[in-house]
Amino acid sequence: MEQKRIMIMGVGNILLTDEGFGVRAVEYLQARYTWPENVRLEDGGTQGLLLMSTLMDCDTLVVLDVVLGPEKPGTIYMLEGEDLRKSLSFRDSMHQTDLLDTLITCSMAGHDVQAVVFGLQPFDYHTMQVGLTPEAEKLLPEFCTKVVAALAERGIATAQPVA
Predict the structure, then answer these.
(1) Contacts with 66 (C-beta within 8 Å, 6 or more apart), sequence order
(2) Neighbours of 103 (CB within 10 A)
(3) C-alpha pair distances (Å), 1 with each of 4, 24, 128, 153, 157
(4) By the 8 A CB rule, do 57 and 106 touch?
(5) Beta strands 114-120 and 76-79: pairing type?
(6) Facing residues of 126 across strands?
(7) What is the pTM of this model?
């Protein structure tokens, strides 16, 4: 049996403070963990529909992003199904094209991708400034540890800390 192809993608605009949290999280995971061969980590930025060819090459998509939910800034979310639109990449906002629309386009092209989002309620995603807010920066290690644990618990992917 062939292993599922897993894509862990950080998305967001690094020019708008915490809007770039997903990109910074994938960078953190790349630098501090080793992943199995069937797992790719990628900076998806704000590419939207341009990600279609990348998504056509995976079976499971794990998106790291900011999430606009009802809780206070710093809250960590895991979203699936109908809740995906709480992630900024799954709604018409800062990103070029809604990522959910891109997944639907992949499905229409004959390739269904299972998606899950791990997100952080941002502290500030409007200020044009490169770099996360100090509060989001401080939460980055905890967020990434929770993502790694949740992926292992769900049988999606396992990672080992870099020695």
Answers:
(1) 12, 18, 19, 21, 22, 87, 88, 119, 120, 121, 122, 125
(2) 22
(3) 9, 34, 47, 21, 16
(4) no
(5) antiparallel
(6) none
(7) 0.87
Residues 6+ apart with CB under 8 A from 149: none
Report yes or no: 21 and 122 within 8 Å, Cβ to Cβ: yes
* Tokens found for residue 103: 């997944």
Task: Work out the widest C-alpha separation in the chain, in whole angstroms.
Answer: 48
Residue pLDDT, tens place only, 15-41 = 999 999 999 999 999 999 999 999 999
Q: Using an 8 Å Cβ cutoff, are 55 and 76 in contact?
A: no
Locus of tokens 């915490």? 18
Going by their DSSP bridges, the two strands 114-120 and 60-66 should be labelled as parallel
Q: Which amino acid is at 112?
A: D
Residue type, 124: D
| DSSP letters for 140-152 | HHHHHHHHHHHHH
**In three state form, how does the secondary structure of 102-119 look?**
HHHHHHHCCCCCEEEEEE
